[in-house]
Design a protein that fits this description.
By secondary structure, the protein is α+β, with helices and mostly antiparallel strands. Helix content is 59%, strand content 13%. It contains six helices and three strands, in the order ααααααβββ. β1 and β2 form a beta hairpin. The protein is globular. The protein starts with 5 loop residues before the first helix and ends with a strand. The C terminus is likely disordered.
Length: 117
């Protein structure tokens, strides 16, 4: 049986991206880590992206997971990039999930609706 060796090739980049997304760090440190994490994310191949998506899905609370799995491949990539860009203080589009400290928040037209943690 053929098995793609994503875990051997992309362990370190995926771990770095997961740390950036899920480990709390001061804002200044997140801002410094954004470019390396973004670069690693964009260098992943298709199989590694899907592997990363499954690992992210395991970390999310139930309701946030439903929003995440409902997105297609490109939508998941865009959502992850938007969450990463949050630490740069950039404007967020309407109706997107972001990670705010240890809480996932869904922004809907200037109203914050907290999802279960």
């Amino acid at each position: 049986m053929y098995r793609y060796r994503t875990e051997d090739t992309f362990d370190e980049p995926i771990a770095c991206i997961l740390r950036f997304l899920f480990v709390y760090q001061p804002v200044e440190q997140k801002q410094q880590l954004y470019i390396p994490a973004y670069t690693l994310f964009m260098q992943l191949d298709l199989a590694a992206h899907y592997f990363l998506f499954s690992l992210i899905g395991e970390q999310l609370p139930r309701r946030a997971k439903l929003f995440f799995v409902a997105e297609d491949y490109q939508g998941k990539k865009e959502m992850i990039v938007e969450i990463m860009q949050h630490w740069l203080g950039q404007e967020l589009p309407k109706s997107r999930l972001i990670r705010n400290n240890r809480l996932w928040v869904l922004y809907i037209s200037k109203q914050d609706v907290a999802l279960e943690t």
